Amino acid sequence: MANMRVDYNPNSINDAYHGTLYEVAKKIVSEKKFIPSKSNDDYLGDGVYFFEGSRWLAAKWVERNHGKDVYIGIVCACVNYGNCLNLNLPEHRFILNRVKEEIIKQPGFKKLGRRITDAFVVNYYATNINKYLDTIRLTYICQDYGKLYEGSIIYDYAQPMLCVRNHAKISNISLSFGGKDYV
Distance between CA atoms of 78 and 93, rounded to whole angstroms? Predict the structure, then answer.
């Protein structure tokens, strides 16, 4: 198969925010350890999820998943992108599409009855093609909220997401917010 590797990105983001329950956030900060999501139904595959540059999105995620009456914990970290599958770039989306095509060509795939999700394709890519994948980036546009205003090309709700597979790329972990009513 032709080259489907991604180039190393030496850049880092200093304000990556992970939303969770307050007690979990305190434990993450004290132990300097995250528990990764592992599912073929998560957005970008297995890893620790962050919102780039937005505590507000991290807090909203906690509210959507745990309710409005919980104590929110927002962890801030620095993340080095490393070997990054940046799905904001068309050439990296092309890689993912080629991986999906490789998956469905495998003998017996249809018999498994698997659903092809983005997470499934990313996990396959990271396990079988690029075992050195550190991070995955995507700005997810939720079109349900509509455009910012009439005549705008900007959607009202965009989520710059970062999934970190290699925990060694996470540093400077701190509690950014703990409490109720962030938003």
Answer: 25
Contacts of 152 (CB under 8 A, 6+ apart): none
Q: Which residue has the tokens 């991604």?
A: 6
Angle at the Cα of 140 from the Cα atoms of 136 and 141, rounded to 5 degrees: 165
Q: What is the full per-residue pLDDT of the chain (183 aa) written as tens digits?
A: 457 889 899 999 999 999 999 999 999 999 999 999 998 778 899 999 999 999 999 999 999 999 989 999 999 999 999 999 999 999 999 999 999 999 988 877 776 667 789 999 999 999 999 999 999 999 998 877 788 888 888 888 889 999 999 999 999 999 999 887 765
Complete domains list, the chain, with CATH: 8-179 (3.90.228)
Tell me the one-letter amino acid at 91.
Answer: E
